């Protein structure tokens, strides 16, 4: 299966984001990257890409988001960036994020279990149909 348009855009933006010097644009890039990552899920909440790939994209996005602004800066811009650094996620936000990650993992595990059961049921039905065909052939032949 090929890459979706969203995934292609996500990869391009991830490649361009580290070179972005304008902090305002970088913030916009990160927001867009997060939106695109969220779009890599089906309406049912299933990932369109592997869980490992989702985690890799997420880590890269967070690395870009955590990147301090670079380049020549005046003392006032350094002071502004220090103020921006002090805006961190509190424990409640981290707990909320962790709760949703756990819910996502639980949902993924449940979906894997359901897929396994569906496969087993399909195999049982297939065997049953084959057995029924054999019995029918036997009855019609005798």
What keywords describe this structure?
mainly alpha, transmembrane helix, 5 helices, 2 domains, 142 residues, membrane
End-to-end span in angstroms? 50 Å
Largest sheet: none
Helicity range: over 70%
How much of the residues is beta strand, in percent? under 5%
Number of helices: 5
Total count of strands = 0
Structural class: mainly alpha
Please characterize this protein's 3D structure:
Keywords: Endoplasmic reticulum, ER-Golgi transport, Membrane, Protein transport, Transmembrane, Transmembrane helix, Transport. It is found in: Endoplasmic reticulum membrane. The protein has 142 residues and is mainly alpha-helical. It folds into 2 domains: 1-70; 88-142. Helices cover 75% and strands 0% of the residues. It is built from 5 helices and no strands. It has helices at residues 5-16, 23-39, 51-66, 75-85, 91-141. Helix 1 packs antiparallel against helix 2 and helix 2 runs antiparallel to helix 3. The two termini are 50 Å apart. The relative contact order is 0.07. Mean pLDDT is 82; it is low at 72-76.
